[in-house]
Amino acid sequence: MDYKDTNLEKRTQDAMCVNESRLEHKWYHNIKYIIVGTLFGIIFVKSEVISWFRIQEMFRLQSFHMYGIIGSAVLVGLLSVWLIKRFHIKTIYGEPISISPKKFNKGQIYGGLIFGFGWAITGACPGPLYAQIGTGATVIIVTLLSAIAGTWLYGYLKERLPH
């Protein structure tokens, strides 16, 4: 991979995926993602990760439940990235995985604060929004539409924001 490619340089600084596959697949190839997403949603529901009350307990420092789940996810992520780097693991199709170094900037603080405030106010992290809607909490559609609007707004203003 040539890092002198300006498009790749921009993408690596912007935390966008630089590991896009160049392989062409049939339409049914993506069914596995629906299956895994459904299973992931079931796990979210059963572990109470989507529970507004659990999220409020976390932000009020009243329960370790969510911190334990988030902490274990961070540990699994750290271990996974270390293994990928250490053993030069490739995708299941044999393509190399490239993990670019990221520089810290003040925009991450602002984004984290906005994300945290939104999470605390709505009681919904973007990950389980679909699972919450699937369990019948249709009011979360407002949160989903707000998340989509916020993502669009960021894309529109990205060049003018601190990075």
TrEMBL record:
Keyword Membrane: yes
Key words, A-Z: Membrane, Transmembrane, Transmembrane helix
Pfam family membership, one: DUF6691
InterPro entries registered for this protein in UniProt: DUF6691
Regions that span the bilayer: 31-53, 65-84, 109-131, 137-157
Domain of life: Bacteria
Protein name: YeeE/YedE family protein
